[in-house]
């Protein structure tokens, strides 16, 4: 343990000033562990083209790790539950789900016109069909996914004025 300057060792500082992750419902948020085992893949600008310009359904979660972390985490968990429903059914192509950290991928967030977090974008091809800014339950997200990609009835949580013009 090296001296970091001014006569203080790093271990001494962090013993006195511990850094703790935010907890949601008694569970500590683990953004790094989630990358390895989650249903929603985190992507960067370089990976965007391979995801966006494909005809299959794409759902993008724009989030921030350290600002409103509990809300962002809760929205991610609900999206993962909804995505798993479609992956478990074998009769249709499940939507692809990705997430973008607004603070890291600023250019991509700007191109998607995402200014606040968390928000969910429903895309088909290279067109944004709908932008959801409220945190929804997994059941509501399942209904929304069915509406946008599988010709289901429009759920009440989808605002008809916010839909893309050609949808």
TrEMBL record:
Tree of life domain: Eukaryota
Record's keyword annotation contains Nucleotide-binding: no
Keywords assigned: Chloroplast, Plastid, Transit peptide
Keyword Chloroplast: yes
GO biological process, one term: regulation of DNA-templated transcription
Subcellular location: Plastid, Chloroplast stroma, Chloroplast nucleoid
InterPro entries recorded: MRL7/MRL7L, Thioredoxin-like_sf
GO cellular component entries: chloroplast nucleoid
The protein's name in its UniProt record: Thioredoxin-like fold domain-containing protein
Organism: Aegilops tauschii subsp. strangulata (Goatgrass)
């Amino acid at each position: 343990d090296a001296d970091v300057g001014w006569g203080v060792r790093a271990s001494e500082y962090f013993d006195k000033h511990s850094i703790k992750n935010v907890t949601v419902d008694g569970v500590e948020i683990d953004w790094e562990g989630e990358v390895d085992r989650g249903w929603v893949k985190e992507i960067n600008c370089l990976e965007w083209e391979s995801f966006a310009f494909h005809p299959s359904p794409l759902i993008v979660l724009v989030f921030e790790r350290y600002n409103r972390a509990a809300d962002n985490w809760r929205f991610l968990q609900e999206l993962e539950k909804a995505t798993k429903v479609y992956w478990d059914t074998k009769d249709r192509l499940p939507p692809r789900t990705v997430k973008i950290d607004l603070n890291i991928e600023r250019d991509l967030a700007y191109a998607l016109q995402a200014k606040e977090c968390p928000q969910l974008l429903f895309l088909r091809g290279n067109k944004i069909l709908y932008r959801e800014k409220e945190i929804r339950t997994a059941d509501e997200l399942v209904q929304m996914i069915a509406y946008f990609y599988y010709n289901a009835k429009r759920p009440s949580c989808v605002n008809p004025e916010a839909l893309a013009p050609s949808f």
